[in-house]
Amino acid sequence: MKRKNNQQLTAMRAYRFTPTLAHIIYASARSLNMNESEFVRRVLMDAIDRIQEN
Predict the structure, then answer these.
(1) Which of 16, 18, 42, 54 sees the fewest Cβ atoms within 10 Å?
(2) Cα–Cα nearest to 40, from 31, 28, 49, 52
(3) How much is the pLDDT for 18?
């Protein structure tokens, strides 16, 4: 991987994600023009909303 991606993966260690999952989150967030923290927050909020609906 490029050095820039390695810095992003290092930042994702706070979430305790595996390197593969961290890269998927990074790539997904970039495709939506978001940062990783905002992407993770939205995913978690969506999951909580779905759980509460059931």
Answers:
(1) 54
(2) 28
(3) 83
